[in-house]
TrEMBL record:
It comes from the Bacteria. InterPro entries: HAD-like_sf (IPR036412), HAD-SF_hydro_IA (IPR006439), HAD_sf (IPR023214). This is Alpha-D-glucose-1-phosphatase. It comes from Paraurantiacibacter namhicola. CDD domains: HAD_sEH-N_like (cd02603). Gene3D superfamilies: HAD superfamily/HAD-like.
Length: 200
């Protein structure tokens, strides 16, 4: 069976940083740092990746920090502004792999409500035969169950899957299932890994 390549999305295909949105809304750097450390944090956001409704977590956060209600609402209304653009070079690798017929998939931690807004803005996703989105499944990496689900959906197991992700825990979980998994650093490093496996 032809080895397939499985991409993470955030910080592999696209840049993602909550600061990109909130720097537009909070002028003071110290206040911005405090807000991103205590109010709209990556850990708090992760609940949407795991399948919790955005309205639910936003309402809870507004109740906890009523003085920041408008900023918390901006997280919901302007989420795409947390994506400043593509990770340099990765889309070109996806295009090259697709052109030579390598099976391509994606496995991403992403909120199900944000995904339909985001997907059309990410051209490499058009090449993916299937995408497992954590928020849709209510399972998020590195939970072993989302890797098992991906194997079912992608029709491959173990070493027939080459996976790249920017999170070491997600790579470790993939390796535990026997996947050929490599921590993403940048497109040049990924290109070398793909070439070493004869995929490019």
């Amino acid at each position: 069976m032809t080895k397939a390549v499985v991409f993470d999305v955030g910080r592999v295909l696209i840049q993602w940083d909550l600061r990109c949105l909130f720097a537009k809304l909070i002028a003071d750097e110290a206040e911005l740092d405090w807000f991103l450390t205590h109010v709209v944090t990556e850990q708090w956001h992760f609940q949407t990746d795991a399948g919790r409704p955005v309205a639910e977590i936003v309402a809870e956060r507004k109740a906890e920090f009523p003085q920041h209600a408008a900023l918390i609402q901006a997280y919901r209304d302007r989420f795409l502004e947390t994506v400043p653009g593509p990770v340099p070079g990765t889309a070109a690798l996806v295009d090259r792999l697709a052109a030579i017929g390598v099976p391509l998939f994606a496995l991403t931690n992403f909120g199900s409500e944000f995904w339909p807004q985001f997907r059309p803005t990410c051209p490499p996703l058009r090449h993916m035969r299937d995408v497992v989105v954590s928020g849709d499944e209510r399972l998020a990496k590195p939970d072993p169950r989302i890797y098992a689900l991906a194997e079912e959906r992608f029709g491959r197991v173990g070493d027939a899957l080459f996976f790249t992700d920017d999170n070491p825990d997600n790579i470790a979980a993939a390796k535990a299932r026997g996947w050929d998994a490599v921590l993403f650093e940048d497109a040049a490093q990924l290109e070398r890994e793909l070439q070493a496996r004869g995929l490019l």
